[in-house]
Structures are given as structure tokens and as C-alpha cells.
Design a protein that fits this description.
WH-like_DNA-bd_sf; 3-stranded antiparallel β-sheet; WH_DNA-bd_sf; DNA-binding transcriptional ArsR family regulator; DNA-binding; 17% strand; 47% helix; 239 residues; 11 helices; alpha+beta
């Protein structure tokens, strides 16, 4: 008997297309009922129930009961990280070519800006993270983390975010997350979550109700341009 984690069990659960679709539908960190997940996966309610039971048993999902309804969510950010990493592998074709051009409007919206378990991802997330590095507000370290500099602490404070009050997890305060559409890193971890929450609170970003896509408001574009030099053209052209 090998004394190793049962990697194959988790891999088997994720490998099924129906279960993978359900997991990706939950990758923004919000809970959803079984009916919504069935619709996202294109299966019947009975089929969805069977798959959800397996995901619960496998530790990939958690469930919360409210009255007569049951709401499912990912078991934690570690599951979202696995999904993002797998998606980044899948975005490379057999010949090694990165799939840069989305095939639908929804895909374009997700590539432009999306929520990755409550932190900002997509082209916008990468552009904002790069701007933070260019201004030396955060510095990438060798252990896949970001370190917040003294100037960064002051800048985040001016944005209404007290970095010292953000509690790190065992994986750190600010983590580098490889973006599956951009193949570059965006800001994740507790600081990434707190930062996106603050941008939404300021009215710069707007999360969509039934999608992982994130919209930038006119106020948001003005603020991102003034504070970080990030504008829509920069994100779209990848400059």
C-alpha cells in the first residue's frame, strides 16, 4: 500500500465533463442550488443530484441547507486553485499553442475579467497585478507569493484597505495565481480577495449575478487609469 494521498480519486471526480462543468460554475466562490448547477452542466436534476453527491463525498464541495433548499459551493479556495491550474494546462493545445481567441461572447467576457474564488482574474486581473508590481506596491518572491512593500501598504490604505488587518492563511497573504487565459500571474490569496471586495465596494467593479464575469464601471475605469495607469485598451491589447 502506497502512503500517498489518493490523487487519483480527486482526479477521477474532476475528469468527468458534467462534474467539471459544475465545479467551474462554482469557481467564483458563491453557492448555487442544484437546479442552477444542472442547467450549467446541461443535465437533468436527477443526474445532477448523483454527481453532486459524489463531489460532496470526495470532499470537493460543501453544502448548506436553508429551509427546503440546499446550496452547494466549492470546499475551499484550494479546490478553485486546482481548477485554475488544470484550466491553464488545458488552454495549451497539443502543438504548444496557447488558445488566445475565445469562441463566444461569454468566453470573451471571462477572459477580459472574471472572479476566481473572490479575487480578480482574467486580462484585467493580470493588468492590475502588473501595474501594482510596476509601481513597486507588491514584489514577486520565489515562493509564488507577493510581498507588499512599504509604499504598497500606504497605497492600499489610501484605497481604503488596511493590509495589516487582512489575515493570511497557511499559504500566505498574497499569492501568485497563474491565470488560465493569460498564462501570467494575478494577485490571489486573502489580499487578492480583500482588494477585489474593496474595488466592488468603491463601485469600480460589478460582479454579475449568474456569471463569473466581472464588469468595470465608468467610475472604475477612471479610477484604474488614475491610480494604476490601467485602461480598457491596455487590457484588450495585452500591452
Amino acid at each position: 500500500m502506497y502512503a500517498h494521498p489518493a490523487v487519483s480519486s480527486a482526479a477521477f471526480l474532476i475528469a468527468d465533463p458534467t462534474r467539471a462543468a459544475m465545479l467551474m460554475a462554482l469557481a467564483d466562490g458563491r453557492a448555487q442550488p442544484a437546479g442552477e448547477l444542472a442547467y450549467a452542466a446541461g443535465v437533468t436534476a436527477q443526474t445532477a443530484s448523483s454527481h453532486l453527491a459524489k463531489l460532496l463525498a470526495g470532499g470537493l464541495l460543501s453544502v448548506e441547507t436553508q429551509g427546503r433548499h440546499r446550496y452547494y459551493r466549492l470546499a475551499g479556495s484550494h479546490v478553485a486553485l486546482v481548477l485554475e491550474n488544470l484550466a491553464s494546462i488545458a488552454s495549451v493545445l497539443p502543438g504548444g499553442t496557447v488558445r488566445r481567441t475565445p469562441r463566444s461572447r461569454e468566453a470573451r467576457e471571462l477572459q477580459f475579467a472574471r472572479c476566481c474564488y473572490d479575487h480578480l482574474a482574467g486580462g484585467l486581473g493580470v493588468a492590475v497585478t502588473q501595474a501594482l508590481q510596476d509601481r513597486a506596491f507588491i514584489v514577486a518572491t520565489a515562493d509564488k507569493q507577493f510581498e507588499v512593500t512599504h509604499d504598497g501598504m500606504a497605497w492600499f490604505s489610501a484605497m481604503g484597505l488596511d493590509v495589516a488587518a487582512v489575515k493570511p492563511t497557511r499559504r500566505g497573504l498574497a499569492r501568485q495565481c497563474l491565470d488560465w487565459t493569460e498564462r501570467r500571474h494575478h494577485l490571489a490569496g486573502p489580499l487578492g480577495v480583500a482588494f477585489m471586495t474593496q474595488l466592488c465596494a468603491k463601485g469600480w467593479l460589478r460582479r454579475l449575478k449568474n456569471s463569473r464575469a466581472v464588469q468595470v464601471t465608468p467610475k472604475g475605469w477612471a479610477g484604474l487609469k488614475e491610480e494604476l495607469g490601467v485602461d480598457k485598451r491596455t487590457v484588450q491589447t495585452g500591452v
